[in-house]
Specification:
Elements (H helix, E strand, L loop, with lengths): L2 H13 L10 H19 L6 H16 L9 E5 L7 E5 L1 H21 L11 H17 L6 H19 L6 H32 L4 H8 L7 H18 L9 H7 L2 H26 L4 H24 L8 H27 L4 H25 L14 H4 L1 H15 L5 H16 L3 H25 L4 E2 H8 L12 E2 L9 H19 L2 H9 L3
Antiparallel strand pairs: 1-2, 3-4
Helix pairs in contact: 2-3, 2-5, 3-4, 3-5, 4-5, 4-11, 4-14, 4-20, 5-6, 6-7, 6-11, 7-8, 7-9, 7-10, 8-11, 9-11, 10-13, 11-13, 11-14, 12-13, 12-18, 13-14, 13-17, 13-18, 14-16, 14-17, 14-20, 14-21, 16-17, 16-18, 16-20, 17-18, 17-20
């Protein structure tokens, strides 16, 4: 071989080598590396040293969050085609960074809630828990950066598969096992439908990259138009399932009840963020030419989801076991309906409407994690976690009760939860601007319905504590024995709250108050996040 030929072969080989931007992929990559480190360390650490795994996990998630700062400009891409550097599989734009902030921040708060739930004979196994949580968070952080359907599907499954095991991690618990099985079966069915849609899209366009799909869908031959439309609709199913959109929501209440409370909190925020970021990517970037297909579908899903969630939440009895968790579960379904509204509006009024979804998701993540943190605290003394168990919380833990009241008012969209009100107004405005007046009316009715159960729970927090005599009369109608009058006892009587849970409550409260003081920053931050 001549020198010129050898040089040409070397240049050709070099052109095929990918140049990886390690800083761009650092947040999900570091989370995955810490997950592997936890898995290996768990094999060698004695039982009494297992708490170190929690410290390592919290530190890893905090470090991953800090790695968002060097790439905050949002102008990095990697894993691009050698023939076209503008077509990439991973893009760290502003949208990616905002969702990664939400996902990794949610995982960090989940870790704080989980510290006291691990270890011991009757508690969750520490090594498995931290590995699964970090693995799921790594997949969830990868998804918003994915810019091809293959990476999207892989990231979605990496985020979801560990979640199945997290839900069923309570050994010997029937509810936990049933919840994990229901979550697994329904998720597998949704994934199968989504993969069928992806295959249809690939068959009609010949590419998996989102920007290339958008270009080629415009030129699909008439004979393949029906196949392309079917592919668009079926691809949305998998992401609608993760977002808990009706009628793909049926797994939510039983899964939240059966899962450990920190895992339920994680699913309510991170799983929803994964679903909505996936929906936004495929609809706005890949399928804009088929907005006449997915726009009406998403609008109907939004109306159905918020209505089903609010009506089911309204029917929760205060004395039913796990009614507080079930109410939060159905509330999360209703909130998913509100989150879908700007996505539907984007089909009619352009991508500027997506900022409302991102802003609402940020608000929802903060206050919902805070509500679950309070629920996790109450569950330490009231394992059935009924709504009635929160009676008298203000008399024992006034700051915790005030925080819970603030979270519920934010979810309801009432002052002093200004950030919740602001988020709902922006979502309502997006529907009106897009000409979806009927959807705005449906949303208004549902907001009024939600006010009832949020305010009812808030009122329970500040009622006088239930006496021991009253509690006994509910269980058996026998008259009390003669003696001194029983003293009122709240849900946390004589219980010392763990510092990590109080830290999670305090952090979410502080962020919620800060956002309520300057709610316009949320929308401005969300608007700047758009790709």
């Amino acid at each position: 071989m001549t020198v010129a030929a050898a040089q040409g072969a070397a240049d050709s080989a070099a052109s095929l080598v990918q140049s990886v931007d390690w800083l761009a992929i650092a947040p999900p990559a570091l989370t995955a590396v810490v997950a592997l480190a936890v898995l290996v360390a768990d094999l060698f650490l004695p039982e009494r040293r297992k708490p170190l795994l929690g410290v390592l996990s919290v530190a890893g998630l905090a470090a991953a969050l800090l790695l968002l700062l060097p790439i905050r400009a949002g102008d990095r891409s990697t894993f691009c085609l050698t023939a076209d550097a503008g077509v990439c599989s991973y893009t760290a734009d502003h949208f990616t960074l905002v969702i990664q902030l939400l996902v990794l921040g949610g995982a960090l708060l989940t870790a704080l809630l989980s510290v006291t739930e691990l270890g011991g004979a009757k508690k969750l196994p520490a090594g498995e828990f931290w590995f699964l949580l970090l693995s799921s968070a790594a997949g969830a952080a990868l998804l918003p950066a994915a810019r091809d359907l293959a990476t999207l599907v892989v990231a979605l499954e990496v985020a979801t598969l560990p979640a199945f095991a997290l839900v069923g991690l309570k050994r010997g618990d029937r509810l936990s096992s049933e919840a994990a099985l229901k979550f697994f079966l329904s998720s597998v069915a949704a994934t199968a439908v989504m993969l069928l849609g992806v295959s249809f899209v690939y068959a009609t366009t010949g590419t998996l990259h989102l920007t290339e799909i958008a270009t080629r869908l415009d030129g699909v031959p008439g004979a393949l138009e029906t196949l392309a439309s079917a592919g668009v609709a079926l691809t949305l199913v998998g992401f609608a399932f993760k977002a808990a959109a009706a009628p793909f929501h049926f797994w939510v209440p039983d899964t939240y009840v059966g899962a450990p409370l920190p895992v339920a909190a994680y699913l309510s925020v991170v799983s929803k963020a994964v679903g909505f970021s996936g929906l936004i990517l495929v609809t706005v970037i890949a399928f804009p030419s088929h907005s006449d297909v997915w726009g009406p579908v998403v609008a109907v899903l939004a109306a159905l989801t918020m209505t089903v969630g609010n009506v089911a939440a309204l029917r929760q009895s205060a004395t039913r076991a796990w009614s507080a968790v079930r109410l939060l579960a159905w509330s999360s379904v209703a909130q998913a309906g509100y989150l879908l509204v700007p996505i539907a509006a984007a089909a009619y009024a352009g991508t500027d409407q997506i900022g409302s979804t991102v802003a609402y998701a940020l608000m929802y993540a903060v206050v919902n994690l805070g509500a679950f943190a309070v629920a996790a605290l109450v569950a330490r003394t009231k394992p059935l976690n009924r709504l009635a168990d929160y009676r008298g919380l203000a008399s024992e833990r006034p700051l915790v009760a005030l925080a819970m009241g603030f979270f519920l008012l934010c979810l309801a969209g009432l002052p002093p939860g200004v950030v919740g009100l602001f988020a709902k107004v922006t979502v309502f405005a997006s529907a009106v601007d897009a000409g979806l007046g009927w959807l705005a009316v449906v949303m208004s009715v549902n907001v009024v319905i939600a006010l009832y159960y949020y305010l009812q729970w808030t009122a329970v927090l500040f009622r006088s504590p239930e006496t021991a005599e009253e509690g006994a009369s509910e269980a058996a109608p026998t008259p009390p024995a003669a003696g001194p009058l029983p003293q009122p006892a709240g849900p946390l009587a004589g219980h010392r709250a763990p510092a990590p849970i109080l830290a999670a409550i305090g952090l979410t409260t502080a962020v919620g108050i800060a956002l309520s003081g300057a709610p316009q920053l949320v929308l401005r931050f969300a608007a700047e996040s758009l790709f």
